[in-house]
Amino acid sequence: MTKKKILCICTGGTIAMDSETLSDLALAEELLAAVPELQQIADIDAFQLTNLDSVEMKPENWIAIAEKIYDLYDEYEGFVVVHGTDTMVYTASALSFLLTNLGKPVIFTGSQIPLSSPLGSDARNNLIYSFRYALMDIAEVCIFFGTSLLRANRTKKISGFDINAFGTFSQDPLGHAGVRLNLTKEGVRRSNARPVLRKNIVTEVYLLKIYPGMSPEIIDRIVDMGYKGIVLESFGTGNIPIGEKSLIPPIKRAIEKGVAIVVTSQCEYGYTEDIYPSGRLLKKMGAVLAYDMTVEAALVKLMWVLGNAHTPREIKDLMYTLIANEFSSFY
Questions:
Q1: How much is the pLDDT for 170?
Q2: In contact, 167 and 145? CB cutoff 8 Å
Q3: pLDDT tens for residues 80-104?
Q4: Residue 190: is it exposed, middle or buried by C-beta count within 10 angstroms (0-12/13-18/19+)?
Q5: Is 272 helix (H, G, I), strand (E, B) or coil?
Q6: Which of 140, 163, 203, 313 has the highest Cβ tally under 10 A?
Q7: 182: which DSSP letter?
């Protein structure tokens, strides 16, 4: 019986590091050779894209991953991307916008402990389960880590030390690895769909966390630096100061200069909408309320939207368009 083929794209990260120096990253072939069980699951080809600590990953690396999957899409049953944990959510979320209309799974994974550790590592199980999920009835970009399969653009890194390092707050996991691997009913299923690669992104997007007493001039400075978009991490459901040190005037000036403003929430469980006066003012001025999108997904989506839309109306409409299940559909 011929085994199905999976492409493993390796980018570096803790999983590939030497356990003593936390540097000297192993190459893709070395990683796969260290887990011989993988060859029982599929016929695996390895491609070394980069060999970086994930804090060094950049948008051009996101595009390179998307291009590789797109170019080799017909040759494989599924794709596994090995990535460092610190910025995995950004890269995986970006892939969900760069590669739309997927008919096959793209599974990101990594580990908290290097595979080379003599005291044991979470890497082995993460790799084995990721490759098994890459053959299952899935057609979207996911993260598998610990025991959970998660929709990439709804995921956040929640721990620097726990083996279950990732979680979702606005929806349940798409699958769970226990005695059996299962899938929930909510995931996108395999199809004969052809992926669409739209790789134009604008990286001049600023992420600004609102905090008590911040100077409104910060927003003017960001605009003067040439940023095309700003993602605001607001309080609660989209609340910002509108009294003393009001942020409304500089935001209004930014929007009038063509800068896109997207409003997210600092709350893990929550969403932004126009309930309170500041939220109503922001929406009336033309700011986009991100609903229950994660901050990371909102940031990379805005980069992608700015690369694929041109007028303020087009930008707003595309931000409010559900591209890859990045926010709850009932808004």
A1: 85
A2: no
A3: 999 999 999 999 999 999 999 999 9
A4: middle
A5: strand
A6: 140
A7: E
| pLDDT tier for residue 22 given thresholds of 50, 70 and 90 | low
CA–CA gap between residue 325 and residue 331 (Å, rounded): 12
CA 291 – CA 39 distance, rounded (Å): 43
Say if strands 166-168 and 141-145 run parallel, antiparallel, or are unpaired: unpaired
CA distance 247 to 266: 17
What mean pLDDT is reported for the chain? 95
Other C-beta atoms closer than 10 Å to the C-beta of 257 total 11
pLDDT in tens, 309-330: 989 999 999 999 999 999 997 7
Which positions are catalytic? 14, 85-86, 157
- Residues paired with 166 in a beta bridge: 157
Which of 212, 78, 211 shows the shortest CA–CA distance to 141? 78
Strand order in the sheet with 288-289: 205-209, 229-234, 260-265, 288-289
Query: Angle CA(218)–CA(314)–CA(302) in degrees, nearest 5?
Result: 45
